Amino acid sequence: MLITNLSLNLLLLVGLILSQATLAAETVTVLDRGEPYPSLVAESGVFWVGRSRENFNANYHLEVYSPNGHMIDSIRLTHSLSSIKKTGNSSIVITGINPTTHLTEYTFARLDKDRIRIKTTGINVEGFINFWIGSIGTLHYFADMGGNPNDNNQNPNLPAQTIFSSAGSNPSYLSARVRMPLAGEINQGKLIIVSSEGMGLSSGSIIEVDSKTSSTRTLISSKTAQFRGLEIIPGTNDIVTIAAGENKLVILDRSSGEIRRTFPTIGYSRAFNLVGHCAIVGNDETNTVEVFDLKSKDDKAMMSEKIDLPANEFHGITQIATDESTGTIFARSNFPCNPLIEVCDQDFNRVVSLGPVFATKTQNLCK
């Protein structure tokens, strides 16, 4: 009987451990079935969530949540929330299109005594914002995939002028020519841009642009991997990105352009963010969240767990955000359904929290 009881206790313990191998995700908010944008970011202990659709129609709201999933405040914007980025100064920048003017706008938002405060500025017809790159002094830098409409370039093989600066509403395009910018950051007065050869192509580059001279320098170029996302490890020259299609996280030496390290990921990596000395990676195909210790000599994930929701409740990870103070991770799924050509009867677009157990593990590993 003693052996039986010990065996039973061991089985219960093993069962508990195995149950933690799958993430017990909790729904924070259900998004519209037509939601097209992966608007989610964590900044200064809160999570910012963007909504651009309600009943498949335009409905632009910015919401802010505490790590426990409680909504603190919500505010309506005049433009879509196609991109959200943190500024590093306890605020965020949202960019999108105003449906009335058909022009792009950008909004700086911050949380003040549990109320969202915003300032929105429109860009005139000579410029179009795809995303905010960053700021140097009073100048904000933006990417325009379509290119400068006043560019007099006649060479179809030469990339367009796709980066402009603005202190308000008037865009001033840099003479730098960067093909199809997908992401970017500013560091030491330079713009670090993820560039693609074209939609659907498995090739891309990371390019450094001098904000003063518009000179460009290709750090890395690949014919087999489209790079996705970009973050710079604080206090270093190292750039972290995802090599989409090759299923790996990459650390790139900014000075030499050499790949310092690679970390294999499970399936197609859609999004990542840096927290402490870790990279948190979300995989679209497998709905798996992986935590890589960038200081470890081991290139394998220190933690790797799958979201336990069925596909009709969470279709796939398109964006993740992590609160450094608690280790809490939010994951977003947004795959827009078109009611004109398909049956849209499943609420698989939503934001979920990955639970306190995984949060504690993340915080302990990465702090």
Verbal overview:
By secondary structure, this protein is mostly beta strands. The protein contains 2 helices and 29 strands. It has helices at residues 2-19, 356-366, and strands spanning 22-23, 26-30, 40-43, 46-54, 57-65, 71-76, 83-86, 92-97, 104-112, 115-122, 131-136, 139-143, 163-166, 172-173, 181-187, 190-196, 204-210, 216-222, 226-232, 238-244, 248-253, 259-264, 269-275, 278-283, 288-293, 303-307, 319-322, 329-333, 350-353. It has a 5-stranded mixed sheet, with helices on one face. A 4-stranded antiparallel sheet has the order 2-29-28-27, with no helix packed on it. Strands 3-4-5-6 form a 4-stranded antiparallel sheet, with no helix packed on it. The N and C termini lie far apart (46 Å).
Quick rundown:
The chain is mostly beta strands. It is 8% helix and 46% strand.
